[in-house]
Amino acid sequence: MNKIFKVKRNSLGQSVVCSEIATSRSKGRVIASALALAVASTVAGQAVAQVKSHYTESTTELANLSELNYERIENLEVAAKETSTDLDNLSEWFKLAYETIGDHHAALDGVGDIVSALDATDDVLIEAIAANTHTAVDNAN
C-alpha cells in the first residue's frame, strides 16, 4: 500500500517526516482543560469555605426560638450576599480571561498570516533561483 509522507518542521525547527493526513496537536486544548480545572477547583474551595455551623447543645425555650431563627435568617442573608459578591467577581474574571484568550487568538492568527506570506515568498524565490540557474547553465553551454 502506498503512503504519502511530507516533511514538516516541528516547534523546535527540526524537520520531521509525517503522514500527509496527520493533524497537529495544539496546546490550546491542554491549556483550556487546565484553565477549566483551575477554575472548578477554586469555585469548589469557596463553596466549602462558606459553610458555617450553627449547632448548639443547649436547649432553647419557645420564646427564644423566634430570636434564634431570626439570627439564622440574618446569617443566611449575609452568606447569600457574600456568595453573590464572589460570583460577581468570578464572572468578571471569566470575562477578562475570555477577552485575553481572544486577544491571544487574534495575535496567533496574525502570526499565521505572516508565516503563510513568508512561505509564498520562499516559493517565489525558489522558482526565481531555479530559473536563473537554468539560464546560467544554458548560457554556459
UniProtKB/TrEMBL annotation:
Superkingdom field: Bacteria
Name used for this protein in its record: Uncharacterized protein
Source organism: Moraxella bovoculi 237
